[in-house]
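ESCALATION

Customer reports they have been waiting on this structure for their group meeting. Please prioritize. Original submission:
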Amino acid sequence: MIKIKHLGFKAAVAILFGVLLLTYGVYWRAISALHGNIEQLVDITKHLQQGETFHSAIHAMLMEAEVFVASGGPAHQLRFRRDLARAKDSLALLLEYARQPVGGQGHGVQALTQGMAREFNKYRAELEPVFSGDCQDSAQRLRTAAEQFNHIFMAYYLRLHEHHRATRSDLQQNTNNTWRAMATFFAVQLGLAIIAGLLVIFYLDRVVLKVFSFTERMAYRDRLTGLRNRAALDKLVEIEELAGQRERRRYALIMLDIDHFKAFNDTHGHQAGDKLLADFAALLVDNVRGSDRVVRYGGEEFLVHLAETRADEAGVVAEKLRRALEQARFLLPDGSPAPQVTASLGVAAYPADGRGFPEVVKKADQRLYAAKQAGRNRVQGPEEA
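Update from on-call: job pushed to the front of the queue and completed.
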């Protein structure tokens, strides 16, 4: 009976997530449609703006030509050239937009725009000779140009404008429909979210178990340095002893202790001592392999476990650590430089220094003590013992 209930729960969760994925797919399609509509509306707006610029420019050309014929003057000719350039630029943009095509309208927009371009060339051909200074039929040319202007306006500009306005109205309607659909799916998603919340509450005990598991993992970490603690070391000993029963995998241990840490603590305070321990631990981690384990053994003592490492290789690593610690410039809590910090290190390896993990740890601790006795800031390994 319990299995059936769990199976029903899993099926309910699968259906719930399936529906959620479906609604997200609909959302994506709706957003894509809205994006396409917005892009088309922007294109149509640009096309309409260029059309207005073109119409304004050719109208200004006609006005300047009429004033020039009536009164002359180079200023009108200059303004005519400026309006002509403006009309040509806007027409070029209109033709470019028409080739895209604007708003997805295809050949209709392209045909209207190309027709406008042909009529503009005729219109321009009628007006430009007026400014030559010796044109005998200026009045006739102005009348013809005015007729052509009206033809451009009625046959092309207005049709293009109405075409775009109808298209824009359709796009706005589509956008509104899409928005309403998205609102409906939002309500569906909100209902599904409520159902999901109820399922989470119903199975909160599973979450609590995960929290307990996380708390247990945190119990293996030293809060000050973030390193593994003695509890983690005990677990490591258990794992190594079990592995040792199956196969003799070599490893090495480095036991190290900060020299004169008590004096440092007494002189600079416990806050400075805690900062030194944390910075010291970070430096150790930065100078060993990712597969190596660094443990806070107790107080100012640390232990480094090097898997698949011989004693001579561990000695090289220990000397590297000693040199890095000696050269490091630690800081006090106020940011000022701390006195030079050194460490003494003892090295031992399995199986050369013991038949099990406790014996190897003991040997590394003895060699650490020997390094202290020999003057500190040194490495004591099997070859020096």
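Sent to customer with the following note: Residues 1-5 have pLDDT under 50 and may be disordered.
Escalation resolved.
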